[in-house]
Amino acid sequence: MSKFLDTQFSISGIKDFRIDSQLYSKYDLVDYQYYTGDTAYPSDMSGLFAWFKSDDLNNFDIDPSGKISIWYNSAPGHSTENLYNYDASQTKPAYDLDKNSIKCEANADLGLYNQLYPNPNSPNFSGFLTGDRCWFVVYEFDSLREGKLTTTDGYFANYSTIINTDNANISTISTGFFGVYGNNTNGLEIPNFNLEPGSQRFVIDSNPTYSANINTNFSAANLFNKNIVSILKNNTTTNLRVRNNGFETLNTNTATFFGTGCASLRVGNAVNSKIISNNQGVSYNYDASNISYYEIIGYSKTPTDEEVLKLEKYLFKKYFTNDDNLYIATQDFTSNSYNYAPINLTGSQYLTKNIDGLFNKTYGCSSNFNTKAIKSNFGDGYFSNVIPNANNLVSNFSLKYDGLTDKQAFSLIGFFQNSFEYEPLNKIDSYENVSMDLFYPYKDNAKIYFENLDYNSVDTNINNVVINCTTAYDSNLDYKGYLITDESAIRPFLLNKTYSKHDVVYYNDTSISGGYYWYTGDASTFLNSTQSPTGNNSLFTEKFYFKPDLDFKIPLNPRFLKNEYEMTSVAYEQDGINKNILDLSLSFTNRSDKEAFAILKFLDDKCGFKLFEFTLPEPYNKRLTFYCPEWNHTYKFKDNHDVNVKFLEFKGHLASDIYFNTIVKL
Amino acid sequence: MSKFIKYENIDFRINDDVFYSNSVSISLQSNISPVLLSDGSLLRYAPDNTVIGSLSTEFYLTDSFPSYLNTTSNSESSISCEFAGIKIDNCYLKSLSFKVANFEPVLLSAQFDWYGTINVVNSTTAIKPFVATRNTNLTNISHSHHTFLMDVDKVFGFDEIFSFDYSEKVDLLPFFANGEIVPFRVAKTNKTKSMSVDGNYFKKSNVADIEGQSVNCNLFLKNYQNTLLNTFNILGKIESRSLNVSSDGILQSTLSMTQRLAVLRG
C-alpha cells in the first residue's frame, strides 16, 4: 500500500517496499513505509514505568553550567524515579540544542565520560527487579572506529553503553548491559567479541564467566543519524528479542543475557567492568564513545508484536521524519527481510535518496543570480540599494542530466516530483528542501527547492532532463559567502606561502582592509610581508581586475530632459549632474576553472549590491565604481566556463553610500 | 639509423581477438578555440569539447563474426583496440561495411570513435609476432565465392547479381559528466543498414514502382570453405534504382535499399 496519491505523479511503476523476496532493479523507485498500521502513544500502553524524552526543556533540570543534572521520568506514577548526576559538571551530559537531545561525551585526554543514573537514596527501578520487561531507546552514536588510545597489541577497543539496567560499575555480575562495541579500522581483531577491525556491533553482557558471544548476530550500529533499538525480554520463557530500526537482529532463549528485571537504569558512557575484563584488562577508548539520547521508554511487560510495531512507529514518525518516503534502488537486489529497509544497514546499501552518486550532471549546467535589492533614487544619479533581507540574492540553478536511459529518466523525474512530499523541518515552508550537490564551483550538500523540469527525448532510451531549482537559505551574513564556500575559497592569507594568479584569500584583518583578496600576479610567487594584501608591493586586489572578452559593448544613455510641446520645437534641458551613468553587460567566455572560480567568488562576495572598482577597457580606460546586481554562469566543458555580468555604475564613494555632490542652489 | 616497423610485424586486435587486417589508421581531432581579451591579448586556447579519436581498419574475417562488431546492436559497451604498441580502451564502433564481388575475398571496413587516453609503449620493443591465428589458412578468410544474397520478397528484378555492398552505421552521442573528458555513456542513434546491389538487365515489368516498396534481404557471409561466418538482414525500403550502360561496358542495373532501425521503448 503506497503512502502516495497516484495522481501526484506523472510517471507510473513506483514499487512498494516489500520483504517477500521482492525483486528490485537499479533505478527502481521504491515507496518505503515503516509500518502501515496505527501508532500507539507510550502512555496508552499498560506497564509503562520509564519514559525519558527530550521534547522540551521542562523534562530536564539544567545546572548553572548548562549541564543536565536531572532527566525527569514522564511515565505516569513514576515521577520520583528520575535519572540524576550530582557529580562534577564535567561528568554531566549536555542538552544539544541543534539535535534536541541529551549528549553524553567522552574525553580520553581528561579520562572523563558523561552519564546519568538513579539516585541511590531515592526511589529507583528496583521494583522491576524480576519479571518481563522491554525497552525502546532512540539514540545516536559517533563512530566507534576512531579511538585514539593504543596498546602494544594495537588500538584499544571502543565501546559505549546504550542502556545499563543493573547495578553498573561494580565488579560482580552485570546482566543488564546493552551497548555498542567498535574496533578501529587499523586495530586488531578483538577475540572475545569476534570484532574484526573496522566493525561495530551490539553487545549484551552476560555474567563474568562467559564471553559476550552473541554479539555477532547483530547488525552494526551508528549507521544512521538515529537508531531505535527495542529490547524485549520475556522472563518466563527467557526469550530475548532485539530489534534495530524495525529489523529483528536477535531472537533467542537465554537466561543470562539481559537477565532479570530492572534493578537500575544507567545511560551514557558508563564504564562496565565486564567489558574491561573481557578486553584483556585494558581500558576502552573514551574518545570514540559519544552518544546522544532522544527518548527512552520502558515497560514492565512483554508487549505483543502489534504493540511493538505501534510503539516503534510512534518513535519512527517522531524521529525519522522523511525517512519513510521514496527511495531509488542503487543496484539490483532481492528484499527478503526487513534488513533491506532503507533505514537499516543492509537496505541503506541498496536504497538511497542521494541522487548525486546515481546520476551524472553533464556539461551545460548553469546558474543565475539576481539581487532583490531595492533601488532608492535620490536624484542627480545618486541612489542607494536597500537590502530587504539576509537572503537578498536569488540563486537559480539549472542542473543538466543528459544521456539518461529511459529507466534513469523515470527515476530522476519521479524523485523530483516527490520532493514536494517531504515534511518540513521548519515552520516556514510546507515541504522540505532537497539536499544535493550543485556543480563546480558551487557548494555540495546545498538545500535546493525544485522549481521545474525540462524533459527532452532524444531517441529511444536517450533522454535529457534539466532540473531548475533555487537555493533559498544562503545568507549574505555569512563571511564565507553564499554558494562558493569550499576550502580554497575561504582560506586565510598566510605569509611565506606561494600564490598564483586568481588565488583567493581571506585577509583576516579587523580593520577596513579585511576581507577577500584576489592575487593578480602572473607567476607563482613565494610572498613576504610587503606582498601581503595590504603590503606596499602587494599584487593582491579587491578590485574587479578580470578582463572581459574582446567583443564588448558599452552603451551610453545619458540622462536629460526633452520637453516637447504641441506646436513648438523641442527644448532640451539639463537633468542635474552625473548624466552619464553606465549600465553595461560584459562577457567572460571560455574561462578556465580557476579564473571562473575567482570571478564567481568575487561576485558571490559582493552579494549583488556591494560596490567595487573596475577599470573600463580601452578606449574608455577609466576606473569607476560599480555593483553587480545580476550575473549568470555556464559550465561548458572541462576547464571552460562562461560568465556574463551586468554592471551598474554607482556615483558616490566606495567607503560610504551617502556621499553626495549635489549643489543645492537657493 | 632510422628504425622502421614493417606491416608484417604488427598485429591488430579487437577485444584481444587478432584480426587479419591489411590497414589500420588512427587520428585525433582536438576542439579548441582562442580566447581574446578586451585589451587585445590572447588569453589562451580553450577546450570546447573533448579530443575525439578515429580508428579505421580493413580486415578479412577469418572466424565467426564477433558480436562486438554488430554496429546496430543495443550494446553500448566500449571495445578495446590494440596495434603497434598502442592500446585504446574506449573505442566505439560507428560503421561496418563490405563489398561482395565475383570471386574476391571480402574485405570488411570498420570505423570507430574513441575517447580518453591511449596506452602507448615503445612500438619498437612491443612488437607482437605475426600470430599464427591471424590467418591459419588463407582459405578461412571471408570470401565472395560462397557468399550470397537472398531476395526473400523477390523485388530486385535482376536476371543476375554482379556484386553488392552492405553497410550498417550509427551516430554516436557521447555524454560527459562534469569535469570529465571520457564519456560515461556513448549512446547510439540513427541506426541504419543499407545495401546497394549491382545486377544486369531487368526481368520484371514493374521495376519503376519503388515508392514505398518493401525489401527483405538475407546476406550470408561465408569463407572460401563455405563455412557461414554471419548472416545479415535488411528489412527496409528501396531507395533508388538505376540502369546504365556505356560504350566500353555492359548493361548494369543498380538497386539501393535502406533500413532505419527502430527500437521499441519499454
Mean model confidence by pLDDT of chain B: 88
Largest sheet of chain B: 6 strands, antiparallel, barrel
Subunit organisation of the chains: heterodimer
Low-confidence stretches of chain B: none
Pick out the low-confidence regions of chain A. Answer: 168-174, 216-222, 278-283, 656-660
Shape of chain B: globular
Strand content of chain B: over 45%
Strand content of chain A: 25-35%
Helix and strand content put the structural class of chain B at mainly beta
**Beta strand count of chain A:** 44
From the N-terminal CA to the C-terminal CA of chain B, the straight-line distance is 62 Å
Fraction in helix of chain A: under 10%
Radius of gyration of chain A, CA atoms, in whole angstroms: 32 Å
Overall pLDDT score of chain A: 82
- Globally, the shape of chain A reads elongated
Q: Characterize the largest beta sheet of chain A: strand count, sense, and whether it forms a barrel.
A: 9 strands, antiparallel
N-to-C CA distance of chain A: 81 Å
- Total number of helices of chain A: 6
Order of helices and strands of chain B: EEEEEEEEEEEEEEE
